[in-house]
Amino acid sequence: MFEDIVRQFTPQYKEKQHYFVTPIESEDPGTIAAVDGGGAILWSNAVRSIGIILSGYIVYDEHHIIVTHKITQKEVLLEGVNLDVHRFQCELFSLAEAATVCDCVLFDGALLDVPGTGFAETLKTIDTTIIGISKKTRVDALQKGIPDTETLDYPGRWHYKIADYPAGKAFPPLGEVYIARLHERGPSFRVDVRGIPMFERLAFFSNYLFCLGYPYPLMEIHRATTLRDKKAYYQSELQKTMFDQGLENVFLSGVYHLEREREEFHQVLDGLV
């Protein structure tokens, strides 16, 4: 079973090529900022929705002490249930602000020129080095069909510049693209750099036991802005406000609509099995 499918890509995994990676031989203690954002829909009637967005930045110094941070919340009334554009705009605002207080700012994800986001325009106004760290990547510039993070499987700490970024990708990069391993026991990541490639600085902040190889300031700002553990609080605040204005049934109907959308399709499928 699946023999024909697996046979199609087996040669690619067996064919090994050698690449000359650049070792990261030292660490550079310094200051670094990290930016992230999160969002959640709290209520919806299928036509309009109410959501909450958290975004912000955190700055660590060379002693791993937080020297400044800022988290902003924004309540949003929107058509439909797609918060992504609004969340990204908030992240860009935080990115621009963080760039005024630090010479290196980390961004969660690749630096891509996605139309309509204003990302490219924002980066043009910033002189600070911006580095995007991607936990997942679909770039297969080195060996077709295999992510470059798998193709470059070398021990130690290193980085490798992707000189020929695949032309067929949907969105072009807004900086230089690298594959890097920032800790000898950590995974490799796609790293987009707009400015100075500060890999020694990244390695300095990638020794945290719970995320070896991943700059921990990004993990901390993600924890501060994720809504997974905060959605219930904001939903209760929305409930109080809508109840105060006599919209008890409207609130309950909207929350029920959200839960029904999330569960209904899978429950129907489960019932057919």
Q: What do these coordinates show?
A:
Strands 1-7-8-9-6-5-2-3-4 form a nine-stranded mixed β-sheet, with helices on both faces. β3 and β4 form a beta hairpin. The chain has 273 residues and is an alpha+beta fold. Helix content is 34%, strand content 26%. The model has no long low-confidence stretch (mean pLDDT 90).
The H/E string reads HEEEEHEHEHEEEHHHH
Average pLDDT, all residues: 90
Order of strands, main sheet, comes to 1-7-8-9-6-5-2-3-4
User: Percent range for helical residues?
Assistant: 25-40%
CATH class: Alpha Beta
Query: Strand count, sense and closure of the main sheet?
Result: 9 strands, mixed
Strand content: 25-35%
Number of strands: 9
Q: Kindly, what is the distance between the CA atoms of the first and last residues, rounded to a whole number of angstroms?
A: 23 Å
Question: What is the CATH topology assignment?
Answer: archaeoglobus fulgidus dsm 4304 fold
Q: Which stretches are poorly predicted, pLDDT < 50 over at least 5 residues?
A: none
Globular, elongated, flat, extended or rod-shaped: what is the shape? globular
CATH arch. level architecture: 2-Layer Sandwich
Assembly type = single chain
Radius of gyration: 22 Å
- Any idea how many domains? 1
Structural class: alpha+beta
